[in-house]
Each structure stands twice: as structure tokens, then as C-alpha cells.
Design brief:
single chain; about 170 residues; mainly alpha; globular
């Protein structure tokens, strides 16, 4: 695994292992647990904010700074499962873009093991799955697979961002 080579993470499954009633502390219906768990899941979103913030500091001033502030506030304001999923997905997407931007800005040095960019990129990848839940995953996949609006593409073109040049060989 890219980021957890030193991890001792394991999956343990118990089948046919009853828990005696006197050892059972409590049970919670799934819907109730999901609502309560959203707060814990929300805290995991701040891990993405932390990695993205480090990327932003290393990059220097960029438009990512404002997006970082927005994502941080969205996490602080999130209330409930859907708002949490949306805020976590936004933070997850941001950390990917911030790390990728740092890798591109750093250039070929970014693949060296002693370079901050490669470590932050690995952490960004790890955070795409760490503490994720189906609602967060669905929201993130939606963000990652939805093409930019024509208005965004037009704005990018006005700022000198263009399509990748095509080769002269027609390819």
C-alpha cells in the first residue's frame, strides 16, 4: 500500500461467536448510529484540511487558499449526515488538488523520498479512503467525475489556460 507500509492494519471477522447478554453493553439501530457517527466522521475531514493547508503554505499564495478557508468553514458548519458528506467530499477533493499542484510546482524533485511534495501527495491519497463512508464516497465520486461547467472553462481560457497542444502528426 502506498501510504501504510508500516501500518499494522488488519481485518478481523468473527463468525458464530455469540456475545452473552451479560457482556453486551448496548445496541444502537443503524440509522441512529449513522447520525451520531457523522460527528466523528466530520473530525476526520479536518485531516484533509491539515494536509491541504501544508500544501498551500509550501505553494505560496494561490486561489487554493480561499478554497481551503471555505472547506474549513463548511466542515465547521456541517450538521447532519448529508452536510458532513458534502463537506468531507469537498475537503477530500481539495487535498488531492492541492497536493497535485504542489507536485507540479515542485517538478521532478517531487518524486524524491525526502521531498515534502511526495509525502503530502501520498497522504492526500490515503485520506481518500481513511474514515470514508458510502455517503462521503458517493459525494466525492460525484465531484471528481462531474466535468467543469462551460463558465469555468471559459474563465480558464480567459486566464491563459488552454487545451493541451496536439501533436503535428494528427494524434
Amino acid at each position: 500500500m502506498v501510504t501504510t507500509r508500516a501500518s499494522r492494519t488488519a481485518t478481523v471477522t468473527f463468525t458464530g461467536h455469540p456475545v452473552p447478554a451479560d457482556r453486551l453493553l448496548t445496541t444502537v439501530p443503524l440509522a441512529e448510529w449513522t447520525n451520531r457517527e457523522a460527528a466523528g466522521s466530520l473530525l476526520n475531514g479536518f485531516l484533509s484540511i491539515g494536509v491541504a493547508a501544508r500544501c498551500c503554505r509550501l505553494l505560496g499564495p494561490t486561489p487554493l487558499d480561499a478554497e481551503l478557508d471555505h472547506c474549513r468553514q463548511a466542515l465547521l458548519d456541517a450538521d447532519g449526515v448529508e452536510a458532513t458528506a458534502t463537506a468531507r467530499a469537498a475537503a477530500s477533493e481539495l487535498v488531492l488538488r492541492a497536493a497535485a499542484t504542489l507536485v507540479v510546482q515542485t517538478g521532478s524533485r517531487s518524486v524524491r523520498l525526502d521531498n515534502h511534495a511526495q509525502r503530502l501527495a501520498r497522504e492526500a491519497i490515503f485520506l481518500q479512503t481513511f474514515g470514508s463512508r458510502p455517503t462521503i464516497r458517493a459525494a466525492l465520486l460525484n465531484r471528481l467525475t462531474t466535468p467543469p461547467s462551460p463558465a469555468i472553462l471559459d474563465a480558464a481560457a480567459r486566464h491563459g489556460v488552454s487545451e493541451r497542444p496536439r501533436s503535428r502528426g494528427g494524434g
